[in-house]
């Protein structure tokens, strides 16, 4: 399995969370809630930096998580681990937004993601770079086991879709064919995992996607590849920004996460690129797979590609047993990345 986080798309100059967070904060300057949000973010930055010994402050996912908790009437979300960032706030009104303010802010976030993460198919230079990079990466899987037969991602962008549409390798085109959707009359593709939980999946987007739309009754997901106007008739784009246990129980994320956990049971090796290990549900799935081995033949390994000391510290804290995971200190897209990854995978599969 290849598991991709936001850092994987940095190879194509797409903004990471810190960068897109800065863009969003500029874009909301005309929002009614701007000063409330900035006041909250300044407090969270200080708390977060003191807690994790960082200078980056909170990104948009953390900010949205905290805002959701503060503005939620469902107090079960207070179990979220990010509660530690705001539990000592003296002013209970800090971060409080009315419904219109919060919706305006979330709409602005969604618009900014779309404007900055959607690959334009007419940008031939970028399309070629994406296609060539993933062709090179995925061809490493010509090993004794097909390690990259499945791709799972937390990303909303369409880099894998662009790759699968443009690659000349038939088996890589299957990432588009097997992604949890089935086509109906009229060429409309609808999310089908919940009706057919045993369906084959080769490409799974855990957090939704720029081209997923959910209807007004929150019961149906449509894959809109032909244009924005059709999707708007169905409701709104489906992306999940903050990750909390509350969201994992909702449609369709319960099914995407359940599929991910079932996929992991069959995997021997997972290569992680660009994932920061901050999603509790994903981390729990990895941890459970690591410690449910039944015999030596079921040995499971995780190879994490990162240079970040913060991420490495988080991995060690979460996964604990360093015999079960290892690090590759290269980023996707760097010189020698493919060579070093191939050598590491050969070692793991010996």
Q: What would you give as the CATH superfamily of the largest domain?
A: TPP-binding domain
Number of helices: 13
- What is the radius of gyration? 20 Å
Oligomer: single chain
The helix content, as a percent range, equals 40-55%
Terminal CA distance: 17 Å
Structure in words:
The structure is a single chain. By secondary structure, this protein is an alpha/beta fold. It has 2 domains: 2-12 and 120-182 and 193-211 and 238-349, Rossmann fold (3-Layer(aba) Sandwich); 17-117, no CATH class. The chain is 42% helix and 12% strand. It has helices spanning 17-27, 34-52, 60-70, 99-117, 124-138, 159-166, 170-177, 228-232, 245-248, 253-265, 280-290, 309-319, 337-349, and strands spanning 2-4, 151-153, 181-183, 189-191, 203-205, 208-214, 221-223, 236-239, 269-273, 301-305, 325-328. The strands form 2 sheets. It has a 6-stranded parallel beta sheet with strand order 5-2-1-9-10-11, sandwiched between helices. Strands 3-4-7-6-8 form a 5-stranded antiparallel beta sheet. Strand 10 (301-305), helix 12 (309-319) and strand 11 (325-328) form a beta-alpha-beta unit. The longest helix is centred in the N-terminal third of the chain and has 19 residues, at 34-52. It is globular and about 60 Å long.
